[in-house]
Specification:
- With 218 residues, the protein is mostly helical.
- It is 59% helix and 9% strand.
- It has 8 helices and 3 strands.
- The protein has helices at 11-22, 27-35, 49-58, 82-93, 104-110, 117-149, 159-190, 198-211, and strands at residues 25-26, 62-69, 72-80.
- It has a 3-stranded antiparallel β-sheet with strand order 1-3-2.
- Helix 1 (11-22) packs across helix 4.
- The longest helix has 33 residues, at 117-149.
């Protein structure tokens, strides 16, 4: 049977299908699993989870069973249907756009020559510590994964491979970001205060650029 992708699904919908492909869960369970581990690499609006589950069920991509609870309302426990699995598999094979970069700290770095170096270094130091915390958490999770999954973390047909993949992505990103922030702190520590009239400094740079030869052969 050919795989089909529903045009009604959001990225959150596919995230929920991916979670249910691993194991069934209630809305609360899925909310927690979207925080950890999915929240480490993709942020979900939690207020949208229950409406999205309702849409998935209306499309017959998930179904629920009622589980009785003592002194509490019955709980809906969701599971993936065969149609939901097919939709998820089709989405996985679809082309993925290269994400647009939106890094406000890097944007600020572009104009930091106008800032007070000590304050700018303090800001960069805060980000270095925050990313170092994330890095330590990812590395701790990798140790846990090695103990829990063993060789399965290297096997692409195992769900553990997906956890391994995103942990490696997170570790690489956080390690590079920490290094960049620490380099910025060091560089700012060596800098002088910004020019009294920044526009004059820009004019100087422009004049130097225009006076430089266009090639080494000129």
């Amino acid at each position: 049977m050919p795989r089909t992708r529903s045009s009604h699904l959001t990225t959150l919908g596919y995230a929920l299908l991916g979670l249910l492909a691993r194991s069934e869960g209630s809305g609360y369970d899925l909310t927690q699993r979207l925080k950890d581990p999915v929240g480490f690499f993709w942020h979900a609006q939690h207020s949208q989870i229950y409406p999205e589950l309702a849409r998935l069920e209306a499309l017959n991509l998930v179904q629920h069973t009622l589980v009785a609870q003592l002194e509490r309302p019955d709980k809906k426990v969701y599971h993936l249907t065969s149609a939901g699995k097919s939709a998820l598999e089709a989405w996985l094979e679809d082309p993925t756009e290269v994400p647009k970069k939106r890094d406000e700290l890097a944007l600020k770095a572009y104009s930091l020559w106008l800032a007070d170096p000590l304050r700018a270094a303090g800001m960069m130091g805060e980000h270095a510590r925050a990313h170092a915390t994330h890095l330590a958490e990812f590395e701790r999770r990798l140790v846990w994964l090695e103990r829990e999954a063993g060789e399965l973390m290297w096997l692409p047909s195992s769900h553990w491979f997906g956890v391994h993949a995103v942990l490696r992505r997170g570790i690489g990103f956080e390690r590079e970001y920490v290094a960049w922030c620490e380099w910025m702190v060091e560089a700012l520590g060596r800098s002088k205060p910004p020019a009294t009239d920044p526009s004059r400094a820009v004019d100087k740079v422009d004049k130097v650029d225009k006076s430089e030869p266009t090639s080494a052969q000129d």
